[in-house]
Design a protein that fits this description.
The complex is a heterodimer of chains A (about 525) and B (about 100).
Chain A: H1 10-18, H2 24-38, E1 49-52, H3 54-69, E2 82-85, H4 112-119, E3 124-128, H5 162-169, E4 175-179, H6 186-192, E5 195-198, E6 219-223, H7 226-236, H8 254-262, E7 270-274, H9 284-299, E8 303-307, H10 315-330, H11 353-364, H12 367-379, H13 386-407, E9 412-416, H14 432-436, H15 443-448, E10 452-459, E11 466-472, H16 478-496
Parallel strand pairs in A: 2-3, 2-4, 7-8, 7-9
Antiparallel strand pairs in A: 1-3, 4-6, 5-6, 5-10, 9-11, 10-11
Helix pairs in contact in A: 2-3, 7-8, 7-16, 8-16, 10-12, 10-13
Chain B: H1 6-15, H2 22-39, H3 74-78, E1 84-85, E2 88-89
Antiparallel strand pairs in B: 1-2
Classes of the chains: A alpha/beta (about 525), B mainly alpha (about 100).
Chain lengths: ~525, ~100
């Protein structure tokens, strides 16, 4: 049986490679052709990629094929191509974080997760678009123009990792890496009908991830199926001595959990529906698909109960204090001295370093980045520190306690991933607070460091757009996400007669493909 | 309390080393007021008895053996520099106008 070279899942591609039915070069070329045909540029097309590395990817693919032919040891995903969010350092490939301040910067080292991809033989197709420094929920804050949602190109693909999610949803890549600080893997997954996982904080190395908020940032997989996410997280996860916040103890097998879940039996699993993350403020179609998914879990044998997490109502406010405080400090490194953009102020023959830094940061940062830096600087100022940052840290404790209390009585918690389906491009661009509200349901997991997954729950009848279902588990129990997620995915796909993405409209093929490569 | 004036935003921008234009200040000050208004809702929701959490994991300091490991060469470290001189980062003068 031959596979479709772009629409197959990563697991199917790996099986086909192992069976000698295809080659990594064929898979990589098919992905590159698909990108060339559909990705376009800032003006038209999906625009999931900021840089495509056809030459490098094909060389890595040929090397994987050669190792296979020589009978050398191979990784579980050897030869399967992958896309990488542009916030992760890659030698030989630009790493811009969607910002003008890093335009053209080529890092002299690889992020640990990128090194693990290369060591495992996954050809890297290119770098995916994102909100500048991962600040946003729509990818519209990219300095290089927005990514468009493959389901409807007038709508947002989510953010900040809209590029990775759109690339996977548009069959440009079977796998991608994302990063999630407040929902940047899960919310794009939700609005593009794909699977995204934020692992336990520290379960995947952050070395080489350009930091936004260190105590919240996490790298994770972006895929079309739960099993593919499990395969990718197992490959990139595990302790890294280069990341001092990396978790030492290994996680239970995620692939085994996904396979166990796919068998469809959730007898004995206790699922808690979070009272505070639902109801008013959530779109009718989102609530309807969420409720139906709960019925599927019950049918699979799970016990579903309602659980209250009263402090979650303060999570958004706490997040939008903690995150800007950490971001304002982190982004101080963009000082125009050692790397990145340097802009000389006008009308000054011999400007000071400080004047150069001020001019550079004005020219190099976009509006949202400036807003968050200033907000963080304000909240950390003497006189406000205790009231804002101090209180936010205490609220964080309350949210952790809510999770602890909830997980004492249930195995996983669930909610809709996002309150709405994909909104229109431009709709919330100049209303930062409305944009922030998109992260309502995803933020608590980051504040507490627990793992979370979003997977497709169906389409909202009012707009025909994907709805995401979120599963949360205790720290280091990422396997529970995969077990419950795979069971739900199997039950839903049985009802749909195939994956949700089969129902997505065909992505337009562009007449000119010059923009992509 | 959270209302933030245009002058305050200008001061914070200076502290943040960002030259905001007048137009940017006009645009940003009211936006920041709205955001601060929303986040200020948490002031006072917790008592003094609640400890602060700065980090999701209970981590202690991580040490390694004090041995030399491979690191970037000077060329690699300088590869992204806006200006290089004699294997060093070349920077504008660091003293202020009045110095």
């Amino acid at each position: 049986m031959s596979i479709d070279l772009t629409r197959a899942t990563a697991a199917q591609m790996a099986d086909a490679l192992a069976a000698g039915e295809t080659t990594s070069v064929a898979l990589t070329q098919a992905a590159l052709d698909r990108i060339a045909a559909t990705d376009g540029d800032a003006e038209a097309g999906i625009h999931a990629f900021l840089h495509v590395d056809a030459e490098g990817a094909l060389a890595q693919a040929a090397a994987s094929d050669a190792r296979r032919a020589a009978g050398e040891p191979l990784s579980a995903l050897d030869g399967v191509p992958v896309a990488v969010k542009d916030v992760l350092a890659t030698t030989g490939l630009p790493t811009t974080c969607g910002s003008k301040i890093l335009e053209g910067w080529v890092p002299p080292y690889d992020a640990t997760v990128v090194k693990r991809l290369k060591d495992a033989g996954l050809p890297i197709l290119g770098k995916t678009n994102m909100d500048e420094f991962a600040m946003g929920s729509s990818t519209e804050h990219s300095a290089y123009g927005p990514t468009r949602n493959p389901w409807d190109t007038t709508r947002i693909p989510g953010g900040s990792g809209g590029g990775s999610a759109a690339a996977v949803a548009a069959f440009q890549a079977p796998l991608a890496l994302g990063t999630d600080t407040g929902g940047s893997i899960r919310q794009p997954g939700s609005v593009t009908g794909t699977v995204g996982v934020k692992p336990t904080y520290g379960a995947v190395s952050r070395y080489g991830l350009v930091a936004m908020a260190n105590s919240l940032d996490q790298v994770g997989p972006v895929t079309r199926t739960v099993l593919d996410s499990a395969l990718l997280q197992e490959l990139i996860g595990g302790h890294d001595p280069l990341d001092s916040t990396s978790v030492v103890e290994p996680l239970p097998s995620l692939v085994d959990a996904a396979k166990q879940g796919a068998a469809g039996d959730l007898t004995g699993v206790k699922v808690g529906v979070i009272t505070e993350l639902g109801g008013d403020g959530y779109q009718a179609g989102v609530r309807a698909r969420f409720t139906e998914a709960l019925d599927k879990l019950v049918a699979a044998g799970a016990e579903v109960v309602e659980v209250s997490c009263p402090s979650f109502v303060h999570a958004l406010a706490a997040y939008y204090l903690v995150m800007p405080c950490e971001a304002s400090s982190n982004l101080a490194r963009f000082d125009a001295m050692r790397y990145g953009l340097r802009v000389m102020p006008e009308g000054n023959d011999s400007p000071s370093a400080e004047a150069v830094m001020r001019a550079t940061r004005d020219a190099g940062f976009g509006d949202e980045v400036k807003r968050r830096i200033i907000l963080g600087t304000y909240a950390l100022s003497s006189g406000y520190y205790d009231a804002y940052y101090g209180t936010a840290q205490k609220v964080r404790t309350l949210i952790q306690r809510d999770f602890e209390a909830a997980f004492a009585s249930v195995d996983v918690l669930v909610s809709p991933t996002a309150p709405t389906t994909a909104f229109k491009l431009g709709e919330k661009l100049d209303d930062p607070l409305a944009m922030y509200l998109n992260d309502l349901a995803t933020i608590p997991a980051n504040l507490a460091g627990v793992p979370g997954m979003s997977l497709p729950a169906g389409l909202a009848e009012e707009d025909g757009l994907p709805v995401g279902f979120q599963i949360l588990a205790p720290q280091l129990a990422d396997d529970r996400l995969y077990r419950v997620g795979a069971a739900l995915e199997a039950a839903l796909e049985k009802e749909w007669g195939g994956p949700l993405l089969d129902r997505a409209p065909e992505v337009a093929t562009l007449t000119s493909t010059e923009g992509a490569l | 309390m959270p209302d933030i004036t245009r002058d305050e935003v200008a001061h914070l921008a200076a502290l943040s080393r960002i030259d905001l234009s007048d137009a940017e200040l006009d645009h940003m000050a009211p936006q920041l007021s709205v955001i601060l208004d929303a986040v200020a809702s948490i002031t006072g929701v917790v008592g003094d008895d609640v400890p602060a959490t700065s980090h999701p994991l209970p981590l202690t300091n991580v040490f390694r053996e004090d041995v030399v490991t491979p690191s970037l060469t000077a060329e690699q470290a300088l590869s992204g520099a806006p200006e290089v001189e004699e294997q060093r980062f070349a920077v504008p003068r660091i003293l202020g106008e009045e110095a």
